[in-house]
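input
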Amino acid sequence: MPPEHEALHILTCQKFPKLTGLPCEFEPILKGGSDRHYYRLSWPTSGQQPMILMVYTNARRDNPKFAPATQRLTALGVHVPTIFHHDESRLCIWLQDLGRDDLHAHRDEPWDVLRPWYEATLQEAAKIHAITETQLTSKDQAELEPPFDDALYLWEQDYFLDHFVRGHLQKEFPDENSSPIEQAFTDLRRRLTALPRCLVHRDFQSQNVLIHENRAWLVDYQGLRLGLAEYDLASLLYDPYVSLTRSQREELLQYYADLRSLSFSKLRETFLLCSAQRLMQALGAYGNLSRNLGKPHFLQHIPTAVERLNSICEESQILRPITRLLQSDIA
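output
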């Protein structure tokens, strides 16, 4: 066992004395783009159930929010992993192991098999989205990440421009012809910030939904904050890691609207705006992760995200100028 694993094994035995002396296997879980490290700890000869050990840092302000977010979601009846122990001084959390099966792994299955999993996932989202801003006290809101507001939407748009347009595509922006694009960004932010907010997951995509005991379970929710339900829906239904057809997205959007007794047309209108915002954020992340953080495998998701963003912007008069950023030349 490598020295760093041995140190974590000793710490685990200190927290769970009954595990002392049992042969332990450490398996690093290598996926995702975060600065957290995950390990699957198992004791195959003892009958002891495996656990997940999350080792985090304070480099990101949302990392310490995982434990309180877990408590909040558990209280709402959302399927999330149980925390067995949290060592705040050593930045370690021992969690229930929900297995290796995630929604993303089912992406190539027939629609009649895949759709019920998406519906189960949307049921979990609906539990979160049912909590409106007016239901949360100032203390509640202080425990969350900063809410979606004009400043956060602007940050996401700048992230897209910095790391995708300027960084990945190597395009100059702004230029003498950029005014319509800048106005589109402003109009998009204005439309989104005018809408009432609810609790949102923030990174609601297929790899953050685990399938365990025939139910959908959510993970990676430390970014819990106030925002728009449609942003979460956009994260899931326009997930660049999965190829859903337009009709499948419409079916799931209708399912969610029925689940929450919402107007489908109003839901869809906001959903498209949020989808453009979310896909720009994703493209910024792919550019940053691949160019600056040594994770070039994220490049493979860029063409799909560009295609979907272009399609959405073509459908909306407000967003149409943004398509010029996705072409071979801005001018």
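quick obs: The first strand starts at residue 25 and ends at 29.
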